[in-house]
Automatic annotation (TrEMBL):
InterPro entries, per database record: RFT1
Function (record text): Intramembrane glycolipid transporter that operates in the biosynthetic pathway of dolichol-linked oligosaccharides, the glycan precursors employed in protein asparagine (N)-glycosylation. The sequential addition of sugars to dolichol pyrophosphate produces dolichol-linked oligosaccharides containing fourteen sugars, including two GlcNAcs, nine mannoses and three glucoses. Once assembled, the oligosaccharide is transferred from the lipid to nascent proteins by oligosaccharyltransferases.
Organism of derivation: [Candida] subhashii
Official protein name in the record: Man(5)GlcNAc(2)-PP-dolichol translocation protein RFT1
Annotated GO biological process: dolichol-linked oligosaccharide biosynthetic process; glycolipid translocation
Endoplasmic reticulum keyword on record: yes
Protein family: Belongs to the RFT1 family.
Metabolic or biological pathway, per its Swiss-Prot or TrEMBL entry: Protein modification; protein glycosylation
Length: 576
């Protein structure tokens, strides 16, 4: 699976669709960097917050965040995926015909994207009403949430934050369509920063209240932080959009406008082919959300509020790597992969497919080696570090730290599922999406049954939920792998097989096992395999460095291409 060095001369000469890629790549780097900085800042503030709040407050805050993310996901995720299939129009002076935008022009393509953004707005209002009514009738809302002081204000802040993000969605979509990740990274970075600060300020100001009142203020603090986040995005995107037409020589409008098709002498608000894709994505998203966020839904019904708080701590700290690195990579990969495979107007189909396959190899190799490091360092050291971060009091009468160690095993499954589904969604046809939707229905039913069996009948609790999540991700990874393999086999670009994957990964796996044995003998003295002291943590750190060095050596051939590109980019920046 060694990669060939790409021919930069050909890429530099490709017009239109290929030109934004360097800008997009730099934007991805910026998005990752901003995400890391803001998430680390969030992490530090959470360490301060966790000293003030109880598992109950944390559990209710997680419940509200789950409801918010679910409403927004159902409203806009299918639209965000489908608009990337819209063909990018060419720049010309005839972007409009009367009051109508013309298909095939840049303004026409962007206006079509905005139209779909309003589809997300309208759908969001319906989803907000249905989910809100459904949650209002639940015991969680009636018995737990409504008993808090100031619960009405918390509810209003959540509703307003959802509305603000829905209103600004059309503007977000045009920047996403343009692969302008740098602007997004700046806006989201500022929003997350202000969210953290305002949440912390409200918690600190309310800490002098009595216990019952402080619980309400604690939840209000998280709701207010979410509102500040949404308001910041609304303001920054609105200001940016005011200058969009001038900066890009376009004539798009923040309103629903018909797109004129000169070939068929017809006009439409929504392009028929894209609308069909949106419907398929929407059906798929229903089951994807159930499977991806199903753990939160299940835990809301099968676990106590204290257990929900414990699981929130486990998932928040356990998935910090996923939020820092995997999430921005997954989103940017999905967008760029779709653009590459839909760029046949400017490049040959074979070249586009080969380019996408090379990207698939590199990103998969990166994920595999990073997963090895996460498993090796995480299983050994994560429980000890978590005790230091949140204090031992959270472990009283709970198995939080043992569960956290098991949760680490789930992270690589979460990571590979995210990236493979992102790649598959970029290459799948309408028929493939229907097949995937049917498969998701099957997996959804299976996982619900498995979760009920493990949690309710076998009394595995949170452990059962983690096991069900691993099964869920493994089934979805398998489907996407088979689909990706079939895609490239049909196009005769390259062959993928499970045997080839095993052959490639066995050497890295063997190296990890060897270093694990060294750590067991030298660091732990054959007495356990987890860190219990700072001395052992330092020793394990040196072992991790040794493992990382071995992995880099094994991947030295694959590192040549990216390092050469980095050197050339730095050289160009110095010359400029």
């Amino acid at each position: 699976m060694s990669t060939e060095k790409s021919k930069e001369d050909n890429q530099e000469n490709e017009p239109n669709q290929q030109l934004p890629q360097p800008k997009a790549a730099s934007g991805v780097y910026g998005l990752i960097i901003i995400q890391i900085i803001t998430k680390l800042f969030t992490f530090l503030l959470n360490q301060l917050l966790i000293r003030f709040i109880s598992p109950k407050i944390f559990g209710i805050a997680s419940y509200l965040e789950f409801i918010t993310s679910t409403i927004l996901f159902f409203s806009r995720e299918a639209v965000r995926l489908s608009v990337q299939r819209i063909q990018a129009g060419r720049n010309d002076d005839g972007g409009t015909k009367g009051n109508q935008f013309r298909i095939g022009t840049r303004s026409g393509s962007l206006q079509s994207v905005i139209n779909f953004g309003f589809l997300a707005c309208g759908l969001g209002l319906g989803v907000l009403s249905m989910v809100g009514y459904w949650q209002y009738r639940t015991d969680m809302f009636q018995i737990t949430f409504m008993k808090l002081s100031l619960w009405q204000y918390s509810s209003l802040l959540i509703i307003f934050s959802i509305l603000l993000e829905l209103i600004i969605e059309p503007v977000f979509l045009i920047y996403q369509f343009e692969l302008d990740f740098s602007r997004r990274s700046k806006f989201e970075g500022l929003a997350i920063f202000l969210k953290c600060v305002m949440t912390f300020v409200v918690v600190v100001l309310g800490k002098s209240m009595d216990s019952e009142s402080f619980e309400g203020i604690g939840v209000l603090a998280f709701s207010f932080g979410r509102f500040v986040y949404s308001l910041t995005l609304f303001i920054t995107y609105s200001i940016s959009f005011l200058k969009f037409n001038q900066e890009n020589n376009t004539d798009v409008k923040y309103s629903m406008n018909k797109i004129y098709d000169s070939k068929n002498e017809s006009s439409f608000y929504f392009q028929n082919e894209i609308f069909k894709i949106w419907k398929e994505f929407f059906i798929q998203m229903l089951f994807k959300q159930l499977l991806t966020e199903g753990d939160k839904l299940i835990i809301n019904y099968l676990c106590t509020i204290d257990e929900q708080g414990i699981y929130a701590v486990i998932s928040n700290y356990g998935a910090i790597i996923a939020r820092l690195l995997f999430q921005p990579l997954e989103e940017s990969t999905r967008l760029m992969f779709t653009k590459i495979l839909n760029s046949t107007a400017t490049t040959s189909s074979f070249d586009s497919t080969k380019q996408s396959f090379n990207y698939l190899k590199l990103i998969s190799i990166f994920y595999f080696n990073l997963s090895i490091m996460i498993l090796f360092a995480g299983i050994t050291n994560a429980p000890f570090l978590l005790q230091f971060i949140i204090g031992r009091k959270w472990g009283h009468n709970t198995d939080l730290f043992d569960l956290f160690q098991i949760y680490i095993i789930y992270i690589p499954f979460l990571a590979f599922n995210g990236i493979l589904e992102a790649l598959y969604s970029g290459m799948a046809s309408n028929k493939d999406m229907k097949r995937f939707s049917s498969y998701m229905i099957f997996v959804s039913i299976l996982i619900v049954c498995v979760s009920y069996l493990l949690i309710e009948k076998l009394r595995f609790g949170i452990l059962g939920l983690i096991i069900a999540n691993v099964i869920n991700m493994a089934l979805r990874i398998g489907f996407c792998f088979v689909g990706i393999k079939k895609y490239y086999s049909i196009r005769s670009v390259a062959g993928l097989s499970l045997m080839n994957v095993v052959k490639y990964t066995w050497s890295s796996t063997f190296v990890m096992v060897v270093w694990w044995g060294v750590q067991y003998l030298v660091v732990f003295g054959m007495n356990g395999y987890t860190t219990q002291s700072w001395k052992q943590l330092i020793g394990s750190g040196f072992i991790c460095i040794g493992l990382l060095s071995n992995l880099l050596f094994l991947e030295r051939k694959n590192l040549h291409g990216p390092l050469d590109k980095l050197k050339s980019r730095l050289t160009r920046q110095k010359l400029d």
